[in-house]
Design a protein that fits this description.
Rossmann fold; about 210 residues; CobH/CbiC_sf; alpha/beta
């Protein structure tokens, strides 16, 4: 089978096994791709959408606003065709030398430091957290202090320490987010959410 045939069949299987649900089409596009990435139907129960999340994300994409990730893995998983079409800069500062020095000086994680140093360039863009709860917690702090203003926060850190707690804090915030409850998540899942948004933005643009 060709790659597109495999993907199409996978989505058909997901639709069949998911059964009836109450997700609007745009939300289902995202949940479906998360399941496709993970083979985990639990995301149907744990996914959380702010009412403005999808519209804000698609608007940011169509405007060519930056996408910033907390890991190189998330960055590498984001589709190139659509980001090139919209001339979107995709970056991850985790390996930046300034980030390393900032983290060392202030005794923080590099993920935390990267959020601080990305505050200016994330304006109107999408910040993607798929690994580090410290990054998400710091981003929430900056948003509350009005020192950061991304159009959308994709908060899907994974793990046992502060992953669930950081997502709970995000979903309690009246700010555009796509997140989930619990410990599950990851860079691949976060990238799949971005990819679903990119595909929706691209298809609606070329129609």
């Amino acid at each position: 089978m060709k790659p597109l045939e495999i993907e199409s069949l996978s989505f058909s299987i997901i639709d069949r096994e998911a059964g009836k649900h109450d997700f609007p089409a745009e939300q289902w596009n995202i949940v479906q791709r998360m399941i496709h990435t993970s083979a985990d139907f639990e995301y149907m129960k744990t996914i959380c959408f702010h009412p403005k999340a999808i519209s804000n994300g698609i608007k940011a994409i169509r405007s060519g606003k930056p996408i910033i990730t907390d890991t190189e893995m998330a960055k590498s998983g984001i589709r190139k065709t659509e980001t090139a079409h919209f001339k979107i800069p995709v970056s991850c500062l985790i390996g930046n030398e300034d980030v390393k020095q900032y983290a060392k000086k202030h005794g923080t994680t590099r993920a935390f430091a990267a959020v601080d140093l990305a505050a200016d360039i994330m304006e109107g863009g999408i910040y993607v957290v798929g690994n580090a709860p410290t990054a998400l917690l710091r981003l929430i702090e900056l948003v509350k202090e009005k020192k950061a203003n991304p159009a959308l926060i994709i908060g899907l850190p994974v793990g046992f320490v502060n992953a669930a707690e950081s997502k709970a804090e995000l979903t309690a915030l009246d700010y555009p987010y796509i997140s989930n409850t619990g410990r599950k998540g990851g860079s691949n899942i976060a990238a799949s959410v971005v990819n679903a948004l990119l595909i929706m933005a691209f298809k609606n643009t070329i129609i």
